[in-house]
Specification:
The chain has about 425 residues and is of the alpha+beta class. It has two domains: about 1-225; about 280-410, Glucose Permease (Domain IIA) (Distorted Sandwich). Helices cover about 60% and strands about 15% of the residues. The protein contains six helices and 15 strands. Strands 2, 5, 7, 8, 9, 11, 13 and 14 form an eight-stranded antiparallel β-sheet that branches. A three-stranded antiparallel β-sheet has the order 6-12-10. Strands 1-15 form a two-stranded parallel sheet. Strand 3 and strand 4 (about 315) form a beta hairpin. The relative contact order is 0.10. The model is unreliable at about 1-30, about 125-130 and about 270-280 (pLDDT under 50).
Length: about 425
């Protein structure tokens, strides 16, 4: 930010007043200096208003982006379902094609016999029977046999042709389905990229708001607005300077102590999962309770392990396990605050969201995490993505006062 000439004059005047060897009385301050001071206060107030408007605009944009992110996540999950259905249909077509080809191979021998019979019939027409040394009864029987055989041979040839046509149609269906799946996968990858772009933009905007030292600027402006005259302002600025100096000294002392115990506190945070709760989280608990039985699954897929099932000898599952498709999108089941996001012991990548009134949701087994510690999430907002392996599995728990409860009672499935 550029400093204007009036700001330089103001800073110089303050420096002369605050650090002069001879303390000034109220009578030493001229009316012109007081006018300059009042003008400076007005300018500071204008800057405060401008900063507030800018912050409000950025917050509105972040809110709009959050809504778009939720919609994108829902579209991606719906397309994952569509892709799974297309892959199932392709598997069915391949199975039908396999059966048709096996049936056709069984008819192969009959086809050879049919062609041989037709060839013999062409080489030995019916009239030739009369010149062979056969009895009249044998000649009549042979003629009757040929008359009955020819229509059967024609029917078999038509049936074989029909099976060949069916196999060709099924092969074309399989090729068409493969093309559709390939196109749908490309669309899904594109949607994932657009979602990542939106999330990066939201993060950048949020960091922009946090990086602004609005609190410090507002404090100075409040002091200036409260000043009734130049002496009052100077006194308050001097007190603020001394208080700031004291705070800086105290902060330095705490920083040195903080460096020594930081690793211990980080481990304690991971072990106990403790974080200061924002005031807004208290208002979410009632909504979470009312949403019982209506919460969406964090990821689309089939439940392969249910709450209370024995996973190993003497050990029961405290949550559920969802078999997802590769690179499946994982969302927040309800509004909440991220109190943990990262690798944790045997869970792999773990995300814990607080929903108020003692309720927590835990998701483990993600390949990547797209949320941050302390971030406030909307219901349906993406929080991460599964791996690209053949058998990705998402583990989900819901807790009340840190005790696991049955997620299936809360989730819509």
């Amino acid at each position: 930010m550029k400093i204007r000439m009036t700001d330089k004059i103001f800073v110089a005047a303050l420096g002369m007043i605050l650090f002069s060897a001879q303390p000034l009385s109220a009578a030493d301050v001229s009316k012109s200096e007081l006018a300059k001071m009042e003008k400076q206060v007005a300018e500071q107030k204008a800057k405060s208003d401008e900063l507030a408007q800018k912050a409000a605009k950025i917050k509105a944009e972040v809110k709009e982006i959050s809504s778009s992110i939720v919609k994108y996540a829902r579209v991606i999950q719906n397309n994952e379902d569509k892709l799974s259905e297309m892959e199932a249909k392709l598997a069915q077509i391949k199975e039908e094609l396999k059966v048709a080809e096996e049936d056709f191979s069984k008819e192969d021998e009959n086809l050879i016999r049919t062609l041989s019979a037709l060839q013999n019939l062409a080489l030995k027409p019916t009239e030739s029977l009369f010149v062979q040394p056969l009895t009249p009864v044998e000649i009549i029987r042979s003629a009757m046999l040929l008359r009955e055989t020819v229509p059967q041979l024609e029917e078999k040839a038509a049936a074989i042709k029909e099976k060949l046509d069916k196999i060709q149609i099924q092969k074309k269906q399989a090729e068409t389905q493969v093309q559709k799946i390939t196109k749908e996968k490309q669309n899904l990858e594109k949607e994932h990229a657009e979602l990542k772009s939106l999330m990066k933009r939201k993060t950048a905007l949020r960091q922009n708001i946090e990086s602004q030292s609005e609190a410090a600027k507002k404090k100075v402006n409040e002091l200036a607005a409260q000043a009734q005259d130049l002496r009052d302002l100077l006194d308050k600025l001097e007190k603020e300077r001394l208080a700031k100096q004291k705070r800086e000294q105290e902060a330095e002392r705490k920083r040195l102590a903080e460096e020594q115990r930081r690793k211990k506190e980080e481990e304690k945070q991971r072990a106990d999962l403790i974080k200061l709760k924002p005031q807004s989280i208290k208002e979410l608990g009632e909504g979470f309770i009312k949403a019982k039985g209506k919460l969406p699954l964090p990821a689309r897929g089939s439940i392969i392990t249910r709450y209370g099932e024995e996973t190993s000898k003497g050990v029961s599952s405290k949550g559920i396990t969802i078999a997802t498709r590769p690179l499946a999108q994982v969302i927040s089941p309800f509004d909440g605050n991220v109190i943990f996001a990262g690798p944790f012991r045997g869970y792999g990548n773990l995300i814990i969201i607080e929903h108020g009134r003692g309720y927590l949701s835990l998701m483990a087994g993600l390949e990547s995490i797209d949320c941050e510690l302390g971030q406030l999430l909307l219901a349906g907002e993406p929080i991460g993505q599964m791996s690209d392996s053949d058998t990705p599995k998402l583990y989900v728990e819901i807790r009340k006062d840190n005790h696991p409860i049955n997620p299936l009672i809360w989730l819509k499935h």
